[in-house]
């Protein structure tokens, strides 16, 4: 078992995750979708609710980057420093992406040698196509949300 500590840049959000072994043995996902590419995020899929938060869990702000309700998940970020903490499926969701798991942004973990991570490219961009800048905002305005 190896425990890794993580926090946002300003330290409002602090947590640990415990893995069965080293993080360098795990597959880390590098997604090229319109959101993840902008965040330079790297994910480890981690059992939901097993991250231990010491501060800031409820302070995190949410952003829903997709208009497709079947793929709905919320991206969580720090309201003070803007650090992107990772995603969580929107529950309940029959077609939720990886039910029972959340995506922890490995970029927020301390003492990680990024050159040693075993990266897997998730080619989401080819699967779902390019997104239209501004379309999300226009649709949300129509819905009045
Ligand atoms: Zn912060």
UniProtKB/TrEMBL annotation:
A matching Pfam family:
GFA
From the UniProt record, which GO molecular function terms apply?
carbon-sulfur lyase activity; metal ion binding
Q: Which SUPFAM superfamilies match?
A: Mss4-like
**Family matches, as InterPro entries:** CENP-V-like (IPR052355), CENP-V/GFA (IPR006913), Mss4-like_sf (IPR011057)
Asked if the record carries the keyword Repeat, the reply is: no
Ranges of residues in domain CENP-V/GFA: 4-132
Question: Can the keyword Metal-binding be found in this entry's annotation?
Answer: yes
Q: Which UniProt keywords apply?
A: Metal-binding, Zinc
Q: Which domain of life is it from?
A: Eukaryota
Q: Which family does it belong to?
A: Belongs to the Gfa family.
Name of the protein: Mss4-like protein
UniProt source species: Rhodocollybia butyracea
């Amino acid at each position: 078992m190896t425990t890794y500590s993580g926090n946002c840049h300003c330290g409002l959000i602090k947590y640990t995750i415990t893995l069965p072994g080293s993080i360098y043995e795990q597959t880390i996902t590098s997604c090229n979708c319109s959101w993840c590419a902008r965040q330079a995020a790297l994910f480890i899929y981690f059992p939901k609710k097993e991250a231990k938060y010491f501060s800031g869990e409820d302070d995190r702000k949410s952003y829903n980057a997709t208009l497709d309700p079947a793929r709905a998940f919320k991206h969580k970020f720090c309201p003070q420093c803007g650090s992107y903490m990772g995603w969580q499926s929107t529950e309940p969701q029959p077609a939720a992406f990886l039910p029972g798991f959340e995506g922890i942004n490995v970029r927020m973990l301390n003492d990680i040698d990024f050159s040693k991570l075993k990266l897997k490219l998730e080619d989401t961009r080819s699967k779902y196509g390019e997104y239209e800048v501004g379309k999300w905002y226009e649709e949300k305005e129509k819905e009045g949300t």
